[in-house]
Amino acid sequence: MTLARYYLLLPLFLLCLYLFPFSRRAAVVNVPLVQRANATFYMLARNSDLDGVVATIEQVEKRFNRNFNYPYVLLNDVPFADKFVDTIRSLTHSEVEFGIIPADHWNPPGWINETEAAASRRKLADAGVKYAGSISYRNMCRFNSGFFFQHPTMLKYRWYWRLEPDVRYHCNIDFDPFRYMEEHNKTYAFTIATYEDPSTIPTLWPTVRGTFDTSFLACVLTCLFPEFGRIHPATIAQGNALRFISHNYVWNNFEIADMDFWRADTYKDFFSHLDQTGGFYYERWGDAPVHSIAAALFLNKNQIHFFDEIGYQHDDWSHCPSNPTPQMECDCDPANSFGVLT
């Protein structure tokens, strides 16, 4: 056979190689940018969290983002190591940004009395409270309560999906939660709701009450016990979710939300009042109850969404969709799901 005849067979060879490849990556269906929301994944991480961050992003890419290509923002209070940056960027085709948290957004503010704060930490540690002695945990709670949405890397986005190291997504997510929230007028979404350790927030609710005028207590009584009458401060949303938050808090290591809500004066004033009291350091206020209370106060309950169809696990706490379909390929059991509303 002449060399020219070999060239004639080349198109057939290439066709066979495409149809019967030795190895080929799974096809990726990219959503055009015009169809995506102005949104990002957000994660707070340390260099020592590399393995856990890898595990999370691999899960997110496998279950959702390889089809949607939303960007990632990772923040740290110190610079990320080159190995960390290179490893994370190798996991996704999406844009990944790495940012450093300003010291005044991370460290305890100047009005905190460290002697008093240290005594409080010792007292909580003696009581066996988790993270009782950790200042960095308190820094994280304060930062996620009042500052992450102000970081320069986040300002160009409206929506975020919070990630944590070492989490698991149990099911395929074949829809866009950001677009769902935009199209259905939702502001805040979650998968798991639970109780907060009362020893970590003994003065949080009294401090919240102090944010408003004296009619706030009447508002709470009205929402929980309608027979008490009806007096509402202007900032409290009609049809709010205070009845739910009175005994549940959203476990916000998974949350999807509209940052315009956190950036509004109503929330910023609310956070500033809480921050000035020092409760993040004199007690151990978490960002979960702070976000939950704010959403319950300032949003109509119809603006808060429970994503039953997103299977999620962090540590031993897990949510499994109540009616999974075969296409979701879930690896969890609904009977063992913690994410049940009460």
From TrEMBL:
**One Pfam match:** Glyco_transf_15
The active site consists of: E255
- Claim: Transmembrane helix is one of the keywords in the record: no
Q: Where are the transmembrane segments?
A: none
| SUPFAM superfamilies linked | Nucleotide-diphospho-sugar transferases
- Which positions carry the signal peptide feature in this UniProt record? 1-26
Q: Name one GO biological process term.
A: protein N-linked glycosylation
- Cellular component per GO? Golgi apparatus; membrane
Q: Which UniProt keywords apply?
A: Signal, Transferase
Q: Which molecular function term from Gene Ontology is one that the record holds?
A: alpha-1,2-mannosyltransferase activity
Out of the domains of life, which is the source? Eukaryota
Cite the InterPro entries for this sequence.
Answer: Glyco_trans_15 (IPR002685), Nucleotide-diphossugar_trans (IPR029044)
Q: Say which family it is in.
A: Belongs to the glycosyltransferase 15 family.
Name of the protein in question: Alpha-1,2-mannosyltransferase
Q: Which organism is it from?
A: Leucocoprinus birnbaumii
